[in-house]
Amino acid sequence: MTWIQNCLPVAAIEWNHLLGTTPLEIIATVCAVLGVFCIARQNLLGWPLGLIWAGISTYLAFTHWNLVSDGILYATYIPIQIYCWIVWHRRRAAPDVAPFVPTWLSRKTQIVLIVAAAASIALWAFGISALAARFPWIPEPALLWRDSTTTVLNYYAQFLQARKHMENWVGWAIVNLLSIHIYWVKDSPIYSVQYGFFLVLGLYGWFQWRKSQKIQTV
Fold first, then answer.
1. CA–CA dist 33, 96 (Å, integer)
2. Range of the structural domain that residue 166 is part of
3. For residues 72 and 79, what is the distance between their CA atoms, to the nearest angstrom?
4. Mean of the pLDDT values across residues 118-130?
5. What is the pTM of this model?
6. In the structure, what pLDDT confidence band is assigned to residue 69 with cuts at 50, 70 and 90?
7. Mean pLDDT of the region 45-72
8. Residues 106 and 180: beta-carbon distance below 8 Å
């Protein structure tokens, strides 16, 4: 029994570290994972859950992690989540339009999208760096290029998801892989684990949306 008692404090420390330093991280993580699961199931409940996650994450990004790009991203996520919620609701409630099912973009549009995303990442990174140098109240950006990449691709993936384009899951996969690393480095392991769940749920969402496509074409 002694060795068990000696191990318990160590286990408690590890779990406390995993769960983060604040209950806000836990609440945000639960809402985020449930929200992505709902979106993968094409359920409208995913968007209000995303609103809660975005609000908490905005606060944490600016006050705890100095992730300026992510802080801006989370803040703008609030109106974006509302926009996506409205789009999905209107398309579902309109009986006189074609079924709102997932679709692929054309190959030409995919190439244009990739080029635009790369240019946007570069512009964002240089812009954030210039703003931080000019205004002392803006914290020095941490992990500038990685943070900029996840931020910009979040916007692209979110827009594609609102329109139910399958390419959104590719964007989310890149975002999630980078974010696992970013938040582990920033000593927020629960957010790192959260993005690990997002990665798995993204694969689940891709298969669910693909299944929906096949059903509609039968």
1. 33
2. 22-94+105-217
3. 12
4. 92
5. 0.72
6. low
7. 83
8. no
